[in-house]
Amino acid sequence: MSVVSTPAIRPQKLFIGGEWRDGASGKTFESINPATGEVLTTIASAEVSDLDLAVGAARKAFDEGEGAWRKMNAADRGKLLWKIAGLIEANIDEFARLETLDNGKPIFESRHVDMPMVVEVFQYYAGWATKIHGETIPAKGNYFTYTLREPLGVVAAITPWNFPLLLASWKIAPALAAGNTIIHKPASLTTLTALKLAEIAQEAGVPPGVFNVVTGKGATVGDALVEHPGVDKIAFTGSTEVGREVMRKAAGTVKKVSLELGGKSPNIVFADADLDAAARGAYLGIFYGKGEVCAAGSRLLVEESVHDSLMEKLVARTKKLQPADPMDPKTRLGAVVSEGQLNTVSRYVESGKKEGAQLVAGGERTQVNGKGCFFQPTIFDRVRPQMTIAREEIFGPVLAALSFKNLEEGLAQANNTIYGLAAAVWTRDIKKAHRVARDLKAGTVWINTYNVYDPTMPFGGYKQSGFGRELGMQALDLYTQTKSVWVDLNE
């Protein structure tokens, strides 16, 4: 029985042009609580004709009249973003509850990690709204030359199911601050907080059409957005496989694209590390968020001389962790997001067994109160680099532990992947830490910590983990373009 009661959630509609509306087809799909298998509510399923309406509304809000969003005083845009942040904070318990019901993550994570950062992201970019500007440039000749930094237009934000509102905020807040209008397509598995955000935007006074939410299957709604000639920019977070398709389909209209994709991040522990801290870091690096984290430390690389000591500490800690009711504030490992993802995790675990990895913790599906999509926290040791579980992103609570002999071999193993999203280094040697951080091919490197984020710090990938940087001032580059202006001053 859940610690927190679950009142009924009303059926959800599309939010287009400042209005709540059913999809043109009248079709809906179900939102399922992965911890219980129960239907939370029904969600309107958009079709291409709904997309056309959303693009038209966003285009009108961006372009037309003196009230166009791009022409609004930047300080006023910033005030609206700040107001959104305040309303999210005022409703933070409701946002956290919806996130946990939809995704299966522990309410502790939703309430005390994800949602507070959503508030901070909107506050951060509210401050940036008045600081996006061009420059005067001393070009040769008798000219007055300057640049204008302008919004792109209509931005389609396509977001995943692992951090539904948090990763949406990383796109929506900077895009709005820069003067763009938004069509948000959340993952079909986790739509509830996106629709709640639309309510908040409406309450804050965001003009109609500036922020729109269309829900439905990626193969219908996502593909149509990527190919739509009225969309100027795609901001996508998801798997590398789907990211490749986004690039291909966006090429037809040569629209701008930014991609934050998969990862197989190395968590490197050297012999001179604080092993207690490293064990805690390895534990949090893979089991936080159920391992459904693009930057999860899913490859643990341990220097041979401390391998046994480190693994003993980590396995002991892991065996104390058990999946439990996500709505219980004491729970630290919730439900896998769906039956389909649970099957995927199970297949990878079977692959690890068949290929000869040593299972030292977990490895089985389980249930809580006889229900739900739960998986035990799992560790494989003695993993070899060529094994499937060492190469492919599992996106679940499954750790692959490998060993290395020296710094050079550790670096080589760490970089031996198509991905390059994140990495971590554990050592007391500050010179070694900086050298390894420099040589790792990853967009984020943590030293003696893991899974730390802040709105001020850019985040994004190397290699097939994508391109472009979210968060920080660098995110504004994704949502602006530069215009050069020449004024002839010759007599």
CA-based shape? globular
Helical amount among residues, as a percent range? 25-40%
Query: What's the structural domain tally?
Result: 2
**What is the β-strand count?**
22
Q: What is the C-alpha radius of gyration, as a whole number of Å? A: 23 Å
Low-confidence stretches: 1-5
Write up this protein:
This protein has 491 residues and is an alpha/beta fold. The chain folds into two domains: 14-261 and 466-484, Aldehyde Dehydrogenase, Chain A, domain 1, CATH 3.40.605.10; 266-455, Aldehyde Dehydrogenase, Chain A, domain 2 (3-Layer(aba) Sandwich). 36% of the residues lie in helices and 21% in strands. The protein has a seven-stranded mixed sheet with strand order 14-17-18-13-12-19-20, sandwiched between helices. Strands 9-8-7-10-11-21 form a six-stranded mixed sheet, with helices on both faces. Strand 17, helix 12 (388-391) and strand 18 form a beta-alpha-beta unit.
Topology diagram in text:
Layout: E1 14-16, E2 19-21, E3 28-32, E4 39-44, H1 48-63, H2 74-90, H3 92-103, H4 107-128, E5 136-137, E6 143-151, E7 154-158, H5 164-177, E8 181-185, H6 192-204, E9 211-213, H7 218-227, E10 233-237, H8 240-250, E11 256-260, E12 266-269, H9 275-287, E13 299-303, H10 307-318, H11 339-354, E14 358-361, E15 365-368, E16 371-375, E17 378-381, H12 388-391, E18 398-404, H13 407-415, E19 422-426, H14 430-439, E20 444-447, E21 466-467, E22 480-488
Parallel strand pairs: 7-8, 7-10, 8-9, 10-11, 12-13, 12-19, 13-18, 17-18, 19-20
Antiparallel strand pairs: 1-2, 3-4, 5-6, 6-22, 11-21, 14-17, 15-16
